[in-house]
Specification:
Blueprint (H helix, E strand, L loop, with lengths): L22 H14 L5 H13 L1 H8 L2 H5 L46
Protein name: DNA primase
């Protein structure tokens, strides 16, 4: 196998901050997705529905699929994915709030740091 044929793996980190302006629509869409999942066992379905009704971050996690982010990207195949969602304190006017806060030490790992 030549170098060009050897698989290369790249970790793509994406941080998104989303404002939920219609919690009912979000929860409803998540419940519809859960109901449509034919492979989900009934006990897991009941747990998922309960979690989605109690927490909008859980509803969001059921609707956002990392595969969808790269499905149409030519020349790549998703090898592994994990994601989570959580409610955070966010002030868009706060200049100290920075998405790259965790990435400060990543320069050693080949990350050039924040990009304009």
């Amino acid at each position: 196998m030549t170098t060009e044929e050897t698989p290369r793996y790249v970790r793509l980190r994406v941080d998104l901050v989303l404002e939920i302006d219609d919690p009912e629509a979000l929860t409803g869409a998540a419940l519809e997705r859960i109901a449509a999942d034919e492979l989900l066992p009934d006990q897991e379905r009941a747990h998922a529905q309960s979690a989605v009704r109690e927490d909008e971050a859980e509803a969001l996690a059921y609707l956002v699929d990392p595969f969808d982010l790269v499905a149409e990207v030519p020349g790549v195949e998703l090898a592994q994915a994990s994601w989570s969602s959580e409610e955070i304190e966010y002030d868009p006017d706060d200049e100290d709030w920075d998405l790259d806060e965790e990435d400060e030490g990543d320069e050693e790992d080949g990350d050039d740091g924040p990009r304009p």
